[in-house]
Specification:
seven-stranded mixed β-sheet; five-stranded mixed β-sheet; 449 residues; 18 helices; binds NADPH dihydro-nicotinamide-adenine-dinucleotide phosphate; alpha/beta; 12 strands
């Protein structure tokens, strides 16, 4: 889609010239700007105060060296990142990603998306993101611990419970959060809720582990219900097999769907009887093994090498929950040809712009990750509240709040789209509703120069 406004186009072109090599970041910015023309046209202050020029530039970018010693005694060096994107509505908040392909472009795209996602939750959280090109896969526990401690030794200077509160993302689960929290506490001699996704024995929130996957299905369910449909009896693809995917499987199944296919970065499995999320939990959370080993538990299932073919499996609902740009135009066409009714994003930016055009062009239901995967950060916000209160809420309490938040996000997106004449366009509605809140706060706070 084109950016139909001269001011927005000018900002984008400047950015594209300055950061030509940051393709993921430019893709994320373009996706937002192409939906904001009607908002910019109705409020002249946005251009007068160059809100867009300011919102696309991070407030602060920190890049640092992370030295650590491997099990052979060899000194390794990785790069660490924290992009503090926007603090207009609250302390920076967003996960840390540890994966070998992490670079500044990926962290900036994630941080930019996070601004709008956090605004949609209605909780007071600004946008940020960080990580490293360190990949915990194949490393021993001791190596992961030494890396996390070294990473935190620098990160500690930039975060704090009222400044910046990181969480997990790809490659950063309970184990990594625990090691980083321990090092933060040691270095600062203070116990604060500076990280979310913590273990239950030291300030974590019940239902945080499940939150992104459950939240995705609550959102999709609200969207389906609005269109007179439900998960009941539907065949579902859940790509990936990590934190988001496992609990998306659980909730989609509880809502009456049947998860037929899941994947990891090596390949995918198909089980016509429905994939039991508990088996994936054992494989991925306990054994840290490959998804191909599912056949050891369910010999009647099928394993296919290579992850991209998963989108050719005939289903009704697609829940991408692995990584960015995992659904390209070819995959989107395969989904449409198989009669899929909706694509609801669990991962961040899983659909390429070409794929989104195919999906929306065919009239499928479509929700962007910044809306439908906001349950994780929303529950992180609830973890921060519990830490401040020094209280722990029950699983049911947190889960009920999560469900309420996801249903309100769906409504906010649908209402914003309708208000600007784009009825039913949840992608545009998500961008507009998220932007509006941050824009109002930035206008109120002045130009802070
Ligand atoms: P995890 O590290 O727990 O899991 C990622 C999963 O995706 C792994 O199974 C991984 O396989 C798989 N994977 C990676 N690349 C591919 C690929 N190209 N094709 C198929 N599978 C792949 O991460 P999360 O579940 O936490 O995050 C998944 C996505 O959800 C990310 O986009 C993240 O930004 C987003 N997200 C996560 C939130 C959270 O609360 N955790 C919140 C909001 C968004 P392998 O084992 O081979 O690496």
């Amino acid at each position: 889609m084109a950016i139909n406004n001269a001011y927005l186009e000018g900002v984008y072109n400047d950015l594209a010239a300055r950061y030509a090599e940051q393709s993921e970041y430019l893709e994320a910015v373009h996706e937002v700007l192409e939906t904001l023309a009607p908002v910019v046209e109705q409020d002249p202050r946005i251009e007068e105060q160059n809100i867009i020029g300011r919102i696309v530039e991070p407030e602060r970018t920190i890049i640092f060296r992370v030295p650590w010693v491997d099990d052979q005694g060899k000194v390794q060096v990785n790069r660490g990142y924290r992009v503090q994107f926007n603090s207009a509505i609250g302390p920076y908040k967003g996960g840390l990603r540890f994966r070998d392909n992490v670079n500044l472009s990926i962290i900036k795209f994630l941080g930019f998306e996070q601004i709008f996602k956090n605004a949609l939750t209605t909780l007071p959280m600004g946008g940020g993101k960080g990580g490293s090109d360190f990949d915990p896969k194949g490393k021993s526990d001791a190596e992961v611990m030494r890396f996390c401690q070294s990473f935190m030794t620098e990160l500690v200077k930039h975060i704090g419970p009222d400044t910046d509160v990181p969480a997990g993302d790809i490659g950063v689960g309970a184990r990594e959060i625990g090691y980083m929290f321990g090092q933060y506490k040691r270095l600062t001699n203070s116990w604060t809720g500076v990280l979310t996704g913590k273990g239950l024995s030291y300030g974590g929130s019940l239902a945080r582990t499940q939150a992104t996957g459950f939240g995705l299905c609550y959102f999709a369910n609200a969207y389906l219900r609005d269109k007179g449909m439900s998960f009941e009896g539907k065949r579902v693809i859940v790509s990936g097999s990590g934190n988001v995917a496992i609990y998306a499987n659980q909730k989609a199944t509880e809502l009456g769907g049947k998860v037929i296919a899941m994947s990891d970065s090596n390949g995918y499995i198909v089980d016509e009887n429905g994939i039991d999320y508990k088996v994936i939990q054992v494989i991925k959370e306990q054994k840290r093994a490959r998804i191909s080993t599912y056949l050891d538990y369910v010999p009647t299932a099928k394993y296919v090498e290579g992850c991209s073919g998963i989108w050719t499996v005939p289903v009704d609902i697609a829940l991408p929950c692995a990584t960015q740009n995992e659904i390209d135009e070819t995959a989107a066409k395969a989904l449409v040809a198989n009669g899929v009714i909706g694509v609801f994003e669990g991962s961040n930016m899983p659909c390429t712009p070409e794929a989104i055009a195919v999906i929306k062009g065919a009239g499928l239901l479509y929700s962007p990750g910044k809306a439908s995967n906001a349950g994780g950060v929303a529950t992180s916000g609830l973890e921060m509240s519990q830490n401040s209160e020094r209280l722990s809420w029950t699983f049911e309490e947190v889960d009920a709040k999560l469900q309420g938040i996801m249903e309100s996000i769906y409504k906010a997106c649908a209402d914003a789209a309708a208000k600007y004449g784009m009825e039913g366009d949840i992608q545009a509605g998500a961008n507009i509703a998220g932007f509006q809140k941050v824009c109002d706060a930035m206008l109120a706070q002045g130009i802070c120069y």
